[in-house]
C-alpha cells in the first residue's frame, strides 16, 4: 500500500466537501496625523526666514509627541500649526531668494555700467 493510501484508509475520507467558514475581524487603525517633521526640518536648515522653520519644527515635534501619547486632537492641532508655519516659511524663503537674486543682478549690473563709464572717461 502506498503511504498516501494508507493515510486515507486510517484517517478516512473527508466528511464534508463544503468550504469552511472564515471570520474576518477588521481592527480600525489609528487616525493618521501627518506631523510634517521632514518639511519642518527642511525649512529649518535651508529656508529659515524669520525663524519660522525652527518654530514649525518645534510644533512638529509637539505633534509627534501628542500622537505618541494618544491625544489625536492635540496632535492634529499642532500639525495644523506646523503646516501653516511651513507654508509661510516656504513662501517667505522663495520671495527672499528671488529678491536676493534680483538685488545681486541689479547691483552687479550697476557696478559694471559704472566701471564702463569710468573707463570711458579715462580714455581706455
UniProtKB/TrEMBL annotation:
Segments spanning the bilayer are: 37-59, 87-108
- GO CC list: plasma membrane
Q: Name the domain of life this protein comes from.
A: Eukaryota
For this chain, the family text in UniProt reads: Belongs to the CD225/Dispanin family.
Is Glycoprotein tagged as a keyword? no
What InterPro entries would the database entry show? CD225/Dispanin_fam (IPR007593), IFITM_antiviral_protein (IPR051517)
- What's the chief localization of this chain? membrane
The reply to whether Transmembrane figures as a keyword in the UniProt entry is: yes
Q: Which GO terms describe its biological process?
A: defense response to virus; host-mediated suppression of symbiont invasion; negative regulation of viral genome replication; response to interferon-alpha; response to interferon-beta; response to type II interferon; type I interferon-mediated signaling pathway
| Keywords associated with the record | Membrane, Transmembrane, Transmembrane helix
Q: Where in the cell is it found?
A: Membrane
Q: What name has this protein been given in UniProt? A: Interferon-induced transmembrane protein 1
